[in-house]
Amino acid sequence: MITWSQEQDALRAGLDPLLDVLSADHLERDARGEFPADNWKLLAASGVLGLPIEERWGGLGQDVLTTVYVLEGLGRGCRDGGLSFSVSTHLVSVGIAVQRFGSDELRQRYLPAVCSGERIGAHAISEPDSGSDALAMRTRAQRDGEHFVLNGSKTFVSNGPVADLVTVYAKTHPDGGPLGITAFLVERGTPGFTCGSPIAKMGLRTSPLCELFFDDCRVPAANVVGRVGGGFLALTHVMRWEILCSFAITVGEMRHRLDRCLDYAKTRKQFGTPIGSFQSVANKIVNMEIGLRTARKWLYDTAERLAAGEDVAADIAMTKLMISEANVASALDAVQIFGGNGYTTEYGLEKDLRNAVGGTIYSGTSEIQRNRLASMLGL
User: pLDDT tens digits, residue range 238-286?
Assistant: First the structure.
């Protein structure tokens, strides 16, 4: 069992004064699909956007365990799941990628603005014809002197409509397999780089999504993140962080949902008795508790192993698979426990369910995670 220090508890508690403001009017914003720019600035002022970034680059210099712990607190206290998702995307897409693989020049130029929230980050991986199969991407980058020229398109880019910096993964060697992909840091406003209209979606509506287009987009060679041909290595590292950060938020949301259901089951009466006394309701709540505890254990066990430098390929796949599916089950149970109230938008539980479904798709679908685990088993 992890014992948290006073400093770690203080970092997590530092978000508490903001949580009511971040959650206010979340249902209305979700209905409008509106990115909460003012709340983004509040979070930026708290320092959470630079949690894992070294202090010399403007961050708080925290390790992966502390980062996960604080983000779990954000998930438990903030009802705007889209905003929380945008935070985790921002943290890993540019912050983690540039800190781990970028040159000192890139770190000095971009990381302070990433940590302060002045520049919002995103990463562009999926394409219309290649989602889970990243090696099949068609976006190309060709060297031209001190620049690379990018051509292609990306889709399902979280934060895309509001992003100032995008880590774009493109093929520099079409037949190079994993060694044929390179990561580039591209600024909004770069000639040849255009942003499509926001894409309406089922859940996480306050985290905007769009397509990005690259038409002879000239990117300085100095903006390569890592080395040419090293993009797949960067992507693997970033996706491990993305799963831990985004699903830490999910675990916090599961905790909050369980607390709501417990309170409702104790106070809501039918046939003259609290509904929690009915075995069918009690069993659902017990299943939610089991799912939460299992999810939290997988989350922190995997984060500890990553921090220790161990091979976590299987652990990451299992963590993502288990938490995402436990979250859907939890959200379904919550809707059922609240009955007609759970089905209405007023209570926010149907929004939880819509958000939860996304977790079985982004960062590698449940089917892909099972395929990866089967391959590791020699199947």
Answer: 999 999 999 999 999 999 999 999 999 999 999 999 999 999 999 999 9
HSE toward the beta carbon, residue 152, CA cutoff 13 A: 24
Strand, helix or coil at 327? helix
Q: What is the overall mean pLDDT for the chain?
A: 97
The ranges assigned to domains in the chain are 6-120, 122-229, 232-376
Same fold, 6-120 and 122-229: no
Class of CATH domain 122-229: mainly beta
Checking if the pLDDT of 324 tops 80, the result is yes
End-to-end, the C-alpha distance of the chain in Å comes to 34
CB 39 within 8 A of CB 28: no
Fold of 6-120: Butyryl-Coa Dehydrogenase, subunit A; domain 1 (1.10.540)
Lowest mean pLDDT among 175-179, 227-231, 293-297: 175-179
> DSSP assignment of 87-111, as one string?
HHHHIIIIIIHHHHHS-HHHHHHHH
Which of 289, 288, 261 lies closest to 276, judged by CA?
A: 261
Catalytic residue among 127, 242, 253, 350: 242
CA 369, CA 214: separation in Å to the nearest integer? 30
Q: How many residues does the chain have?
A: 379
CB contact set of 7 (below 8 Å; sequence gap of 6+): none
Angle between helices 16-23 and 64-77 (to 10 degrees): 50
Torsion of Cα atoms, 155 then 158 then 161 then 166, to 10°: -80
Cα 30 to Cα 58: distance, rounded to the nearest angstrom: 32
The reported pTM is 0.97
- C-alpha span between 240 and 315 (Å, rounded): 10
Q: What is the DSSP letter of 80?
A: -
E strand segments, 145-206: 147-158, 165-171, 181-187, 193-195
Does residue 242 have an active-site annotation?
A: yes
Topology, domain 232-376:
Butyryl-CoA Dehydrogenase, subunit A; domain 3 (1.20.140)
